[in-house]
Structure formats: structure tokens, C-alpha cells
């Protein structure tokens, strides 16, 4: 501050000093409020935040660490290193420095109470008051439980849908089983009769043929029962290399009896040497079974000569396709966008879940499914699946 020769201050200098002092006070107040805001925020967020140096030693511990881990900040500080909370080998220092951030590292931890919890960790390379690694930890235990419950519910829904399909086939399958069983009984009776006459004539060759028929028909009946059992069994989804032509043949064996009863002719146009897909056999069979039954339903009002269903397979660009076509009356344009919606049905006794579940299964395999109308002269349902990488 400058002074006059007489010792007095220039006019206005006192006001400037007062203004400068007031500005600093406001700045200090703003800083205190900002620090208080950060403190309250860290105390109340659900994530736990830490800072460590390159050796994993704590340089900062958030006040709400007990929310996830159950320990007070002082207890965590006494641990010394973050590996006591999150375990060893969480990341490579060089990798974090190169990338700057590492997202979504999932760790199973044990809280102070002994409860097992799943934590999602986000890492960031920083330079803050001696800290070089910022950790943000989020408890996703309940989310993981919810995901498991949804996965189990999906499997239950898929299983229920398969049971509904099996119910539609019971009458035809019973008839299909009855035919070979009748043949078995007849041949067995003939074999017994020949055995009674064995002492009087040599009929060994004929007896061998009869017993061969019994064996073959028995295998046929057992095959039908086994396919039905596999389809109705509750099980986890298992991916393996599969040929869609074989899936198509297996499914056609299941619906053969129903097709004959309805007077429907089913033909195939299957491309040989089809690339393999990685898929769950029973789930794909469920999808194809649903498409075939829907196709036959679409023919109920057609004359028997017009009741035709065709199953196609082929390679389309980067996909392997199975398509089911019918010669019914097609799909009205207003229904096409809704076909795969849950609970949408045009059947009086339908639940509207078959195609919705079929789409869920196909999408789980990384594929897509859609319907195509042929101007009221039938429809085709297409299922595309990605081939194996080596195919």
C-alpha cells in the first residue's frame, strides 16, 4: 500500500484491501464446501473407493468401505495392502499403465462376517498424493443372483414348452409305437410256434429271420421312445458340433406319425456336406419341431392334395440355414411383426409361447429366426445359425 508524504493513505486503498480479504474468504468457504461435498458423497455412495501406490499399499480408503467388505476404515488401513481385500494377481501394472484403465474385473471376496460376495472392480492409473492406482469396487452379488434366477427361469420355460410340444405328439407317437409293438408280438408268437415244431422239422433259418424281425422292430420302438424321452427331459443346454441335416432327420422321425394322420406330405431338400454348427441338440430339435407342427397346423383347412411341407437346408454367406415351408394360406401382413412376441397366438387353445421361446433359443445360439409370407400362398420360417469357425 502506498502512502502520501504526510502519512495518509490514498483514497480507495482501504476498500481494495477489504475487497481482497473478502475474496479470499469466499474462496476458502467454497473450498470447505467442496471438501464437505466430496466427503458426504464418498460416505454415501454404494461403491468402495481406494488409492494405492505401485506396491498396493493404501494411500486412501473411502469412509464407507464397510458397506461391501464389513470392515471399518481403520481395520482396512491396518491390513496394509489391498491384496488383503481383493486377493493377489488382480492386474499387471505394465498393462494398466499401457491401457490407462481396466474395466469389470470380477472377484469373489469374503466379507468380515464370512459372507461370500461378488465384486466388480474398475482400475485407473492416476497420480494423486502418492497414489498411483485408483480402485472402484461395486457389489454385484444380488445382480449375479438375479442373473442365475433368470437363467434358471429360462430353462424352466424352455422345458415347459418342450413338454407342451410332447403333449401335442402323444397321440401320434402312441400310434407309431403301437405298430412296431404289434409286429413284435406277432413275430414272437410265430417264433414260439416254430420252436414247438422244431423237433419235427428243420426251420432254423426261418426262425432266425423271425427273430431278426423282432430285433429290428424292437429297436424301432425303442428309438421312438428314446427320442421322446430326450425331448421331455429337463437338462442344461450343452453346445457341441452338430449337423443340421441330422437334426432335421431326427425331428422328422418324431412328426412322421402325426403327418400321416393329418394327411400332410413332408419332403426334404437338404444340402449335403453342410457346415457344422455349435449348438445344443435338443434345443434345436425343439425349435424345428415347433416350426413343423406350426406348418402342419397351417394346412388344416387345405385339401389333402395341397397339404405339403418342405424342409430345406443350405449355406447362406456366413450362415447355415434351416427353413420350413408350407402351402397354407400364408401370414397376414399385420401379424408378421408379432409372430415371435410372447403370448401372441392365433390358435384357440394356444399359449403363444412356442415361437417366442424358439427365438430365445436361436438367439442364445447367436443366430436369427424370422418368417416370410408368400403372398397368401404359404409361408416359410427361416432359422440361421453361425457355422463353426473351422467349418
CATH architecture verdict of the largest domain:
2-Layer Sandwich
What is the ordering of alpha helices and beta strands?
Answer: HEEHHHHEEEHHEHEEHEEHEE
Shape call? elongated
User: What is the count of distinct domains?
Assistant: 3
Q: Any idea of the CATH class of the largest domain?
A: Alpha Beta
- Report low-confidence residues grouped into runs of 5 or more: 1-9
Q: What would the CATH topology of the largest domain be?
A: Heat Shock Protein 90
In the CATH hierarchy, what is the superfamily of the largest domain? Histidine kinase-like ATPase, C-terminal domain
Mean pLDDT: 80
How many helices in DSSP terms? 10
Architecture overview:
With 391 residues, this protein is α+β, with helices and mostly antiparallel strands. It has 3 domains: 45-139, PAS domain (Beta-Lactamase, 2-Layer Sandwich); 142-236, Helix Hairpins, CATH 1.10.287; 239-391, Heat Shock Protein 90, CATH 3.30.565. It has 10 helices and 12 strands. A 5-stranded antiparallel β-sheet has the order 2-1-5-4-3, with helices on both faces. The chain is elongated, with a radius of gyration of 37 Å. The N and C termini lie far apart (87 Å). 23% of the residues are buried. Mean pLDDT is 80; it is low at 1-9.
Amino acid at each position: 500500500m502506498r502512502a502520501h508524504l504526510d502519512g495518509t493513505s490514498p483514497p480507495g486503498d482501504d476498500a481494495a484491501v477489504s475487497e481482497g480479504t473478502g475474496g479470499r474468504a469466499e474462496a476458502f468457504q467454497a473450498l470447505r464446501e467442496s471438501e464437505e461435498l466430496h466427503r458426504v458423497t464418498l460416505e454415501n455412495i454404494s461403491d468402495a473407493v481406494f488409492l494405492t501406490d505401485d506396491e498396493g499399499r493404501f494411500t486412501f480408503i473411502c469412509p464407507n468401505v464397510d458397506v461391501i467388505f464389513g470392515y471399518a476404515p481403520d481395520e482396512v488401513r491396518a491390513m496394509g495392502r489391498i491384496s488383503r481385500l481383493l486377493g493377489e494377481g488382480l492386474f499387471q501394472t505394465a498393462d494398466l499403465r499401457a491401457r490407462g484403465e481396466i474395466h469389470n474385473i470380477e472377484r469373489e471376496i469374503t466379507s468380515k462376517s464370512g459372507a461370500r460376495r461378488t465384486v466388480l472392480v474398475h482400475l485407473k492409473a492416476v497420480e494423486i498424493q502418492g497414489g498411483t492406482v485408483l480402485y472402484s469396487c461395486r457389489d454385484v452379488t444380488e445382480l449375479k443372483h438375479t442373473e442365475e434366477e433368470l437363467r434358471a427361469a429360462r430353462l424352466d420355460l424352455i422345458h415347459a414348452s418342450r413338454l407342451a410340444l410332447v403333449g401335442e405328439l402323444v397321440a401320434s407317437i402312441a400310434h407309431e409305437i403301437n405298430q412296431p409293438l404289434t409286429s413284435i408280438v406277432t413275430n414272437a408268437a410265430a417264433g414260439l410256434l416254430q420252436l414247438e415244431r422244431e423237433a419235427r422239422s428243420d426251420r432254423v433259418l426261418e426262425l432266425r429271420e423271425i427273430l431278426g424281425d423282432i430285433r429290428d422292430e424292437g429297436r424301432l420302438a425303442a428309438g421312438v421312445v428314446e427320442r421322446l424321452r430326450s425331448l421331455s427331459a429337463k437338462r442344461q443346454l450343452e453346445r457341441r458340433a452338430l449337423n443340421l441335416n441330422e437334426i432335421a432327420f431326427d425331428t422328422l422321425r418324431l412328426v412322421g406319425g402325426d403327418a400321416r394322420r393329418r394327411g400332410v406330405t413332408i419332403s426334404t431338400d437338404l444340402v449335403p456336406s453342410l457346415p457344422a454348427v455349435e449348438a445344443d441338440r435338443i434345443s434345436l430339435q425343439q425349435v424345428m419341431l415347433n416350426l413343423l407342427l406350426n406348418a402342419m397346423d397351417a394346412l388344416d383347412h387345405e385339401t389333402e392334395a395341397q397339404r405339403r411341407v418342405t424342409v430345406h437346408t443350405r449355406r447362406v454367406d456366413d450362415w447355415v440355414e434351416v427353413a420350413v415351408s408350407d402351402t397354407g394360406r400364408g401370414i397376414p401382413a399385420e401379424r408378421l411383426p408379432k409372430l415371435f412376441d410372447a403370448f401372441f397366438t392365433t390358435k384357440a387353445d394356444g399359449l403363444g409361447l412356442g415361437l417366442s421361446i424358439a427365438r430365445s433359443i436361436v438367439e442364445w445360439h447367436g443366430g436369427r429366426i424370422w418368417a416370410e409370407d408368400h403372398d397368401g400362398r404359404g409361408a416359410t420360417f427361416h432359422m440361421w445359425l453361425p457355422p463353426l469357425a473351422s467349418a
